[in-house]
DNA sequence: CAATAATGATTCACAATATGAATGATTCAA
DNA sequence: TTGAATCATTCATATTGTGAATCATTATTG
């Protein structure tokens, strides 16, 4: 006889990645909380670091969130001294966000925390499988809409 | 020279799985919405199907949510005729949830939807990498707390 | 056995998160 | 130059989740 119960739903990649993603994000959130950050703050820092200064509208678009949400994220990071927020002289409607040295340092801390989680995640994982996982993620991350860590 | 920018934060598994998980869960949520379900409803159906009837406290524990949240989930599924909710005769404090035939059918629909997402996800993925991905997920899914799809 | 503690389900008040509509400033197009 | 579009911001609102309080029931224990 074949297998009786094929682990309905929970056997799918969609379900497993969904659950694991939430678990990891919650853990990441707990570990960056002492820095005064939430995952979306870290996502914004990373965006600015990797893609350079951006207006709030551009950042919101890139992160897949409403522009109104970005106001609060930028407020917070500005309070922490992690970014500057200046009117674009060429178009004074735009608020241009740019990382400060403090922001870069903060991002590095987030990065270290994420890497520590990676270490735990891949602890009992065949190195070849870990490499394949990275390839698979790269292939899947071009998937449909973009949205940054919540 | 070595690579200048190592994709700060966004290069980590933690970040990538977090983002992908949210993206996938949002997509899954959109596709099961016509069934009148949200991801947590589907998670509860799957729990009952895969592990048998459970009290609400047990289900909440297994899903990693507050018992008070489970009340509403069970209400909804009961309204849809997807589960029965009966006092345990042996301990009349416990409400025991059990799948109905309609609930099983509903879960099968969710399963099909998740499988369709899997198909898209793995479309341009080396089959060997897809297999490795499954192994990696299996290894990582024993990770810390449990929480079901949100 | 009686009194007290613990457990399960439920309701409720509340916090956190996100959205979209409205507003005001500015820029673009006709 | 007038009207439409864009950007940032605020505000009202929806959604989601939690924990405290309550009530019924069951366990404990003096």
Please summarize what this structure is.
The structure is a homodimer of 150-residue chains. By secondary structure, chain A is mostly helical.
Question: Would you kindly provide a written description of the structure presented here, covering whatever features stand out?
Answer:
The structure is a homodimer of 150-residue chains. With 150 residues, chain A is mainly α. Chain A has helices at 13-32, 39-51, 56-63, 67-79, 101-121, 127-140, and strands at residues 54-55, 83-88, 91-99. The first copy, chain A, has a three-stranded antiparallel β-sheet. The radius of gyration of chain A is 19 Å and the shape is elongated. In chain A, 40% of the residues are buried. At the A-B interface, helix 1, helix 2, helix 5 and helix 6 of A face helix 1, helix 2, helix 5 and helix 6 of B. Chain A binds a DNA duplex (30 and 30 nucleotides) through residues 40, 55-57, 65-72, 91-95, 150.
Task: Give me the secondary-structure topology.
Two copies of one chain form a homodimer.
Chain A (H helix, E strand, L loop, with lengths): L12 H20 L6 H13 L2 E2 H8 L3 H13 L3 E6 L2 E9 L1 H21 L5 H14 L10
Antiparallel strand pairs in A: 1-3, 2-3
The structure holds a DNA duplex (30 and 30 nucleotides).
Shape of chain A: elongated
Cα distance, first to last residue of chain A?
Answer: 44 Å
In percent, how helical is the residue content of chain A?
55-70%
Oligomeric status of the shown chains? homodimer
Q: Give the spatial strand order of the biggest sheet of chain A.
A: 1-3-2
Estimate the strand proportion of chain A. 5-15%
How many DSSP-defined strands of chain A? 3
> Which parts of chain A are unreliable, with pLDDT below 50 for 5 consecutive residues or more?
none
Rounded to the nearest angstrom, the radius of gyration of chain A is: 19 Å
Main beta sheet of chain A: 3 strands, antiparallel
Instruction: Enumerate how many helices of chain A there are, as a single number.
Output: 6
For the largest interface in this structure, which chains are involved and how many residues does each contribute? A-B, 63 and 63 residues
Q: Secondary-structure element order of chain A, as H and E? A: HHEHHEEHH
Q: Kindly report the average pLDDT value of chain A.
A: 92
**What structural category do the secondary elements of chain A indicate?**
mainly alpha
């Amino acid at each position: 006889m074949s297998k009786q119960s094929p682990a309905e739903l929970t056997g799918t990649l969609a379900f497993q990645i969904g659950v694991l993603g939430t678990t990891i994000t919650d853990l990441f959130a707990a570990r960056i909380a002492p820095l005064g950050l939430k995952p979306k703050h870290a996502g914004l820092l990373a965006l600015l670091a990797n893609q350079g200064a951006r207006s709030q509208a551009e950042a919101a678009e890139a992160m897949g969130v409403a522009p109104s949400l970005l106001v609060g994220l930028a407020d917070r990071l500005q309070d922490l001294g992690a970014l500057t927020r200046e009117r674009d002289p060429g178009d004074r409607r735009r608020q241009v966000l740019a990382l400060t040295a403090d922001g870069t340092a903060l991002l590095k801390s987030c990065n270290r925390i994420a890497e520590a989680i990676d270490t735990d995640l891949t602890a009992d994982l065949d190195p070849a499988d870990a490499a394949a996982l990275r390839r698979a993620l790269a292939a899947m991350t071009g998937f449909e809409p973009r949205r940054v860590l919540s």
